[in-house]
Specification:
Number of strands: 22
Structural class: alpha+beta
Shape: globular
Mean pLDDT: 82
Largest sheet: 8 strands, mixed
Distance between the termini: 62 Å
């Protein structure tokens, strides 16, 4: 029996995710550094995929992970520390009420030597998991970094769950690994299956064509140049809105009541409502509360929304602000392994399962005219096509045929693009690193686009992270203020 296996990545891992890294940071009251390091090594020792290194397979024409099945793997977790004889200021920490905070520097959470893209990980054979701890006099910053080409937020949540259990001495079972990637096998089958979608569907294929262009030097320069332009002229700021309280509970309840009274039985989620609340408030129109916010939007004619969607069939639960456990199963696609059911892959975990679901574009006038409930329903209905095998086939055909396997987000004059990602289902904050968690932050490295919005649950509220123009943050603050009028957010 070989002491290694070769686990291939999927075409989706290598179409655009492979160029980026992710860092998840936690500000904690205190941390036992040696215990954290030992626990992380034990997690990687059990989840052997994370102990591997990248190599290119000419036979498969794909990046693969060379996974060691035995032997010492302690060197496959990069662990760095720094100690500063100063205090980390309270503006970086979440309090007991709604607030807007500025993101702290990445250097407190990520060592500068950590690679971002798959090619750099392959050439350096760097560990997939890197942990950096910066100790302050009043707290500690703990950052865990990885490449998006191997893990997504959901799989990272599994890592953090394993880390918490190791720190507490609670048994857990690591995901199984196999030389068969279930999603890769499904995609191979779909390549020889007659189309299960309409190639002329403006919602499906048209949405993808609005979203992506082939990855070329010129197209990438246009994308990065548009971000640089907004950095200078729109004063982009990385911030977080933490929102909680009875006003938010009332908002959720009244929107769901509005939808029910309209006769619609669409099961909208908290994430649907929050995403559309952010969109309405961010573009300067919050019709739900009757406020018209004077936000300058320039010559932008329409807003196009996109949604990062998990391909997993798992049933997830989260607690809403009313304390009820709510099933999130309706948001996820069919079980990928069961589509083809290769016996060797039936229990294999999908380590990276993210696709982009384009939603119909809205003009500012449409956003202003529609109620928050109507927008939440449209958001939910916009995700419906992506729950089908036909949509997975359409996405795959688009990537390999029109994009030639590599793509970058499109930027067009007169269109402003928002990308929403629901991290509630990843459960990234219900963890225990040994001390109270004051705040949690995320970074998309080496650089981040504007208007990428992450929604995460935290304690009894929700975190909304984004890189937005200063005027947008003022609009969000005013909208949040209407939910908690006793406190000034900015």
């Amino acid at each position: 029996m070989s002491d290694t296996i070769l686990a291939p990545l999927t075409p989706f891992d290598q179409s655009w995710l492979e160029r980026h890294g992710l860092t998840k940071g936690y500000i904690v009251k205190n941390v036992d550094i040696q215990a954290l390091k030992a626990a992380a090594i034990r997690v990687v020792d059990k989840w052997r995929l994370l102990a591997g290194h990248l190599q290119w397979s000419n036979k498969l024409s794909s990046w693969c992970i060379q996974v060691p099945l035995q032997g010492d793997i302690s060197h496959r977790v990069k662990f760095t520390t720094k100690k500063l004889a100063t205090h980390l200021g309270p503006p970086f920490m979440i309090g007991s009420s709604s607030t807007i905070l500025t993101r702290p520097p990445l250097k407190y959470f990520r060592d500068s030597s950590v690679p971002h893209d798959l090619r750099s990980f392959a050439s350096s054979k760097a560990p997939f998991i890197s942990i950096h701890v910066t100790e302050f006099l009043n707290c500690a910053c703990v950052g865990i970094s990885f490449t998006h080409g191997i893990l997504d937020g959901f799989a990272f949540g599994m890592f953090m769950d394993g880390l918490t259990r190791e720190l507490k001495g609670i048994p857990w079972e690591a995901p199984a690994i196999s030389e068969i990637n279930p999603l890769r096998e499904v995609l191979k089958d779909l390549e020889t299956t007659p189309p299960m979608y309409d190639p002329n569907d403006s919602t499906m294929i048209g949405g993808l064509r609005r979203t992506f262009v082939p990855y070329t030097t010129r197209n990438n320069m246009v994308f990065e140049g548009s971000i640089a332009y907004q950095e200078i002229f729109d004063h982009l700021e990385n911030k977080m809105l933490y929102i909680r309280g009875k006003g938010l509970e009332t908002l959720f309840r009244e929107v769901k009541d509005e939808i029910k009274k309209s006769g619609c039985d669409e099961p909208v989620s908290v994430a649907d409502i929050l995403a559309m609340w952010i969109l309405k408030a961010g573009v300067g129109v919050l019709a739900y509360t009757g406020n018209i916010l004077n936000t300058e939007v320039g010559c932008v004619r329409q807003r196009a929304s996109r949604y990062k969607l998990s391909l997993r069939p798992v049933k997830c639960f989260f607690s809403g602000n009313n304390g009820e456990a709510t099933s999130r199963n309706e948001e996820l696609l069919p079980c990928v392994p069961n589509i083809r059911s290769p016996s060797q892959a039936a229990d294999v975990t999908l380590d990276n399962g993210v696709v982009i679901c384009p939603l119909p574009p809205f003009s500012k006038e449409e956003i202003a005219k529609k109620t928050l409930g109507e927008l939440a329903v449209l958001h939910r209905q916009g995700l419906a096509p992506a729950r089908s095998l036909g949509w997975i086939q359409a996405y795959h055909d688009f990537v390999r045929k029109e994009m030639k396997g590599k793509m970058v987000f499109s930027r067009k004059r007169g269109e402003e693009v928002w990308l929403f990602t629901n991290l509630i289902i990843a459960n990234l904050t219900d963890i225990d690193l040994g001390g109270e968690i004051y705040a949690t932050w995320g970074w998309f490295t080496p650089g981040e686009a504007d208007h990428i919005v992450g929604i995460t649950s935290f304690k009894d509220g929700y975190i909304i992270e984004a890189k937005l123009p200063r005027a947008r943050w003022s609009a969000l603050a005013e909208a949040a203020q209407s939910l908690e009028p006793a406190k000034a957010l900015l």
